[in-house]
Amino acid sequence: MTQHLHLQRSLFFAALFIVFATLPITNWSIVQAEDAYPRSNPLAGDKAAIENGTRLYFKWCVACHGNAADGEGTRFGGSWGYGANLTKFWRGYCDFVVIVLNGRTDKMMPPWGGVLEEEEISQVGAFLETLAAEGSNWTGRCTLL
Ligand code: HEC
After folding, report:
1. What does the pLDDT average to over 45-71?
2. How far is the CA of 30 from the centre of ligand 1 (A)?
3. CB 121 within 8 Å of CB 101
4. Which domain holds residue 6?
5. Are residues 52 and 112 in the same domain?
6. For atom 6 of ligand 1, which residue has the closest CA?
7. Which one of 54, 64, 91, 97 would you pick to mutate in the ligand 1 pocket, going by the greatest count of ligand atoms within 8 A of its CB?
8. Tell me, what DSSP letter sits at residue 60?
9. Do 81 and 19 sit in the same domain of this protein?
10. Residue 56 is assigned to a structural domain of this protein
11. Element housing 130 (H / E)
12. Cβ-based neighbours of 72, under 8 Å, separated by 6 or more
């Protein structure tokens, strides 16, 4: 009986050791999160993508983010303070995709995951990148996943 318990405990520590020993090598979940979306927009600068992104922006985003995507003069804007200035978006492309997919429902930014395909979100991003003002940034690793 004590021998059996002893064996069980050894196996337990052996398993624990294997898990900890392999963790730094695999790190699957973290790798996945970082690679969920690219660090820069694969469609940036693509003429057709920008054209379609412009169309999509003026269909879905313009009401809150404005004609110049600066959050000014929007239908729901003004004193309500709706719509961020997307010409100064600085979190990088990966975070852009995450924000657009999930929205910020507590702050009236709707989630677009059920409306727009990932490629369409890239197209909107490609359009917005053409408006990028000083201080904006469209590259870098994801910080929101
Ligand atoms: C109903 C209004 C509304 C619509 C429509 C809308 N947004 Fe927003 N969006 C907001 C608000 C409000 C914020 C600011 C949320 C906050 O303060 O965190 C925001 C924030 C964002 C942000 C984050 C900006 C930052 O600097 O962190 C992105 C990116 C964004 N919107 C993209 C889009 C895109 C792309 C579309 C169209 C597909 C869209 N939004 C449509 C209201 C809207």
Report:
1. 95
2. 27
3. yes
4. 2-26
5. yes
6. 61
7. 64
8. I
9. no
10. yes
11. none
12. 66, 85
Same domain, yes or no: 69 and 18: no
- pLDDT tens figures, 73-127: 676 655 555 789 999 999 999 999 999 999 998 888 999 999 999 999 999 999 9
The number of CA neighbours under 13 Å toward the Cβ of 58 is 8
Nearby residues of 68 by Cβ (< 8 Å), 6 or more positions away? 87, 131
Does residue 29 have a pLDDT over 70? Answer: no
- Residue 91 C-beta-side C-alpha neighbours within 13 Å: 15
pLDDT averaged over the chain? 84
User: Do residues 66 and 22 both lie within one domain?
Assistant: no
Predicted structure pTM score: 0.81
78 and 8 in a common domain: no
The pLDDT of residue 131 is above 70 = yes
Atom number of ligand 1 nearest to Cα 115: 38
Q: Quick count: other Cβ atoms within 10 Å of Cβ 75?
A: 12
Give the tokens for residue 45: 């600068």
Give φ, ψ of 44 to 5 degrees: -55, 130
CA-wise closest residue to 122 among 112, 109, 136: 112
